[in-house]
Amino acid sequence: MEEERGYKKELAEHFFRHSYAKMVAILVRYFGLQEVETAEDIVQDTLVEAMERWSVQSIPDNPEGWLMNVAKKKTINFLKRKQTFESKVRPTIQINTLFEAKDQLVEKDSTLRMIFTCCHPSLPVESQIALALKTLCGLSVSEIANALLTSESTINKRLYRAKQKFRDGAIIFEFPDHRSLGTRLDAVFTTLYLLFNEGYYSYHHEKVIRMDLCFEAIRLVKEVLEFYPQSHPAKALLALMYLSVARFESRIDEHGALVILSEQDRTKWDKALIAEGMEYLYQSTADNEVSSYHLQAGIAAEHSLAKDFNSTNWASIYRQYNMLEQLQPNVFFTFNKAIAKFFGISQEEALMDLLALKKEQALQNNSQFYAALGILHAEMGLSEEAQSYFQMALNLSKSTHEQALIEYRMRQ
């Protein structure tokens, strides 16, 4: 019975995540941006009801339609209770038509408007990303804080200030004009990239991989691409995502522990998803534009096409990380570049490069950094140093799956 309830809960979360964006976006289209928090509350309340009902009743034949219908009823009840809405706004719309006669184009139009609205240039970039992750993608404040490497209090402040602009009417629910499209798309891609990363390596204790977030990010990028089919960064980002999700099945062992790349069973890699990713990567190179997503997808392609870990073209990966570092300075690119150097150029030099990064604030509390130091010291036969770094990683880790991996390596 408990196993069935757990399954139903996961299913409710899956359909909720898949429908969240368009549910919030359509509600905002009717309420206006001033009531964005009301829209979020109604959608969240709909999930709670789904989990309560589905845990004891059979799952409806059309789960997404059920969620939409419940959200519609909650919306109508809310509007009837709100006198201000009744007197000022209701005469201009027919509330009983909410969610009715909605074709796919209108739903996608609303979702894309919401993405662009959250990524408005009058908001600081960090607020744009936090707002979109919360309002459009349904992430919690703690999830956003982990994704953006900051505190929950900082995220709460960013969200409050951003939503205040909505309440003040300073931002309009609309598409950007052509002059600002490039900048706005950059913020959109950054948001969806971070959403994917949160799913690919989740900070949840129970789930290290959240496939629902990854595929939701892919779906949203595809919606952007439908409206802007000539966007080569969008195609490169899709390539990166597909080449990454192709390795899902090999990243967790039968005991639920993470499996590092060198020990993954490559026969479990999804060849169809790899082919999809390679096709998007090919399409993204139609002109001379090179974005960070092109380079990251190129690195993912090198891993995906290598028949085994030892035959990986580490020199190519090193060069691409070097280009990434110049294009978009980032300590994590420097970190990964050093790992590529370790396996493809010089172990001693790479280890010196990594140890020099210990002073970087962004890495000082990062369990993956110290776990990597442990693994590389172990590769060089430096067991005592490896154990020390593994213990540091274990102390910092928030994930039970990552902890299992670290403990396994310590036993080895």
How do the strands and helices of this protein lay out in sequence?
Layout (H helix, E strand, L loop, with lengths): L1 H30 L4 H21 L6 H19 L1 H6 L15 H15 L6 H12 L4 H7 L4 H16 L13 H20 L10 H17 L4 H14 L25 H14 L7 H14 L8 H14 L3 H14 L2 H10 L4 H4 L2 H13 L3 H14 L3 H12 L1
Low-confidence stretches: none
State which percent range the strand residues make up: under 5%
Order of helices and strands, N to C?
A: HHHHHHHHHHHHHHHHHHHH
Alpha-carbon Rg, integer: 23 Å
Counting DSSP H or I runs of 4 or more residues, the number of helices is 20
C-alpha end-to-end distance = 38 Å
In total, the number of strands is 0
Estimated structural class:
mainly alpha
The protein's oligomeric status is single chain
The average pLDDT is: 83
**3D shape:** globular
Sheet with most strands = none
Helix coverage percent of residues?
A: 55-70%
Account of the protein in words:
- This protein has helices spanning 2-31, 36-56, 63-81, 83-88, 104-118, 125-136, 141-147, 152-167, 181-200, 211-227, 232-245, 271-284, 292-305, 314-327, 331-344, 347-356, 361-364, 367-379, 383-396, 400-411.
- It has 412 residues and is mostly helical.
- Helix 14 runs antiparallel to helix 15 and helix 18 (367-379) packs antiparallel against helix 19 (383-396).
- The model has no long low-confidence stretch (mean pLDDT 83).
